């Protein structure tokens, strides 16, 4: 449900859905094991928003998607609405996907070949890493239709079968990851399931390991942290027996599997597991030797550090993130760099360093306006910065408020 308005705080969203369910503050607080005073302060923003694990529990009790409490991004591109999510949904839910026997192509139908589609998919992956999500969403409906036709071709051509399924897996992985990024958690899971089914059919361990990342993205977006950890651990164990540990692509995919599972553990407030997984990823990054981008993983020593900071933020270790958060990300793909700056800005604002937080958000916005202006965590951070005082100057205060309006953090 996207009817609450982007300017509402997390507390106001909790209060809205509490009243909608007919719960008093005392009842809801009791259902999540907290005091009425705690909930009252959360709803009125007299204390900082709950940690992600508590938000997940509140969402479960209130029976709403996690994204509804956090605030769903609304996809925009350069101030022109480019929201083709309904077309992506239509492509994923076409009845032709239900049965190949019922809806298979006509005998003479011209079906695409995997080579050109693979090249186009990688170009759109580059758009994703460049933070151009509007362009990705615009391309996905046609790409998903082509992926379905490639699956039809796989049934006809034994020689191209593996390649057709592998390309379908990459396209559906891209769809799942993008949809999770923009808050479409339900169809993100649908796309991830399709990605992994296609990867299974391809028989390629690296394709399956890559597709499993889409599964963890979708599970994290749905607040299913135990399931995300299980998927990561199962994938890592399966990979270890089937890939060459001197292959940099395999190292990167295995490393990212550990990193995504580590974030799931951190959001579940399982510090020992998160630390163990991060350490395993760090060992693989050291073996790789440098930052790389095999299979669009951005994996390497820097990405391990960035995930460690993100995990500590989820674990509420703000002082750690503030003390160690100044990382050079100029060489990283924009999507990864912006995600880091948003996390670091959030930690700075929680530490009372509003001006420094604003500097990070402005740097992130210059890199990718779309990723910043439509991010719920950015909105929360800007509201915190506005509240903090004293501000350094009237000019800076005005700049913060103008950015908050751009990001729909305030009306």
User: What structural class do you assign from the helix and strand content?
Assistant: mainly alpha
- Please tally the helical runs, counting DSSP H or I stretches of 4 or more residues: 22
**Gyration radius, in Å:** 22 Å
* Tally of domains: 4
Order of helices and strands: HHHHHHHHHHHHHHHHHHHHHH
First-last Cα distance: 20 Å
Q: How many extended strands?
A: 0
Q: Report the major sheet.
A: none
As a percent range, the share of helical residues equals 55-70%
What ranges have pLDDT less than 50 throughout 5 or more consecutive residues? Answer: none
User: Which outline best applies?
Assistant: globular
Mean pLDDT across residues: 89
Share of residues in strands:
under 5%
Protein name: XRE family transcriptional regulator
Pfam family, one: HTH_31
InterPro entries: Cro/C1-type_HTH, Lambda_DNA-bd_dom_sf
Domain HTH cro/C1-type: 14-69
Kindly describe this structure.
- With 411 residues, the protein is an all-alpha fold.
- The chain has 22 helices and no strands.
- It folds into 4 domains: 59 residues, 434 Repressor (Amino-terminal Domain); 143 residues, no CATH class; 94 residues; 87 residues.
- Helix 10 packs antiparallel against helix 11, helix 13 runs antiparallel to helix 14 and helix 16 runs parallel beside helix 18.
- The radius of gyration is 22 Å and the shape is globular.
- This is XRE family transcriptional regulator.
């Amino acid at each position: 449900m996207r009817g609450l308005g982007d300017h509402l705080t997390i507390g106001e969203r909790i209060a809205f859905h509490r009243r909608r369910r007919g719960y008093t503050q005392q009842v809801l607080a009791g259902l999540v094991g907290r005091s009425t005073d705690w909930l009252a302060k959360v709803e009125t923003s007299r204390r900082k928003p709950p940690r992600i694990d508590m938000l997940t529990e509140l969402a479960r009790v209130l029976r709403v998607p996690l994204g509804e409490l956090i605030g769903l991004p609304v996809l925009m591109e350069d101030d022109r609405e480019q929201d083709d999510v309904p077309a992506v949904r239509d492509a994923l839910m076409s009845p032709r996907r239900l049965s190949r026997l019922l809806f298979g192509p006509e005998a003479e139908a011209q079906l695409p070949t995997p080579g050109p589609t693979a090249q186009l998919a990688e170009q759109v992956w580059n758009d994703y890493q460049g933070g151009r999500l509007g362009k990705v969403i615009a391309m996905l409906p046609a790409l998903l239709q082509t992926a379905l036709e490639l699956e039809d071709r796989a049934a006809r051509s034994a020689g191209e079968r593996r390649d057709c399924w592998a390309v379908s897996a990459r396209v559906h992985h891209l769809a799942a990851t993008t949809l999770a990024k923009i808050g479409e958690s339900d169809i993100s899971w649908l796309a991830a399931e399709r990605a992994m089914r296609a990867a299974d059919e391809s028989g390629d361990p690296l394709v399956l390991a890559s597709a499993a990342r889409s599964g963890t993205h979708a599970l994290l977006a749905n607040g299913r942290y135990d399931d995300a950890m299980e998927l990561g651990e199962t994938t890592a164990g399966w990979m270890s027996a089937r890939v060459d540990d001197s292959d940099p692509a395999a190292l990167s995919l295995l490393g990212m599997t550990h990193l995504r599972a580590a974030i799931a553990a951190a959001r579940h407030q399982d510090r020992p597991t998160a630390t163990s997984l991060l350490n395993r990823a760090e060992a693989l990054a050291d073996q790789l030797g440098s930052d790389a981008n095999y299979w669009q993983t951005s994996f390497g020593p820097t990405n391990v550090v960035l995930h460690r900071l993100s995990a500590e933020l989820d674990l509420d270790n703000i002082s750690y993130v503030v003390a160690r958060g100044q990382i050079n990300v100029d060489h990283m793909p924009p999507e990864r760099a912006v995600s880091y700056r948003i996390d670091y800005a959030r930690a700075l604002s929680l530490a009372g360093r509003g001006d420094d937080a604003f500097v990070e958000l402005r740097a992130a916005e210059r890199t990718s306006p779309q990723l910043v202006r439509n991010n719920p965590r950015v909105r929360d951070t800007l509201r915190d910065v506005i509240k903090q005082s004293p501000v350094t100057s009237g000019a800076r205060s005005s700049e913060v408020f103008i950015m908050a309006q751009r990001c729909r953090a305030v009306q």
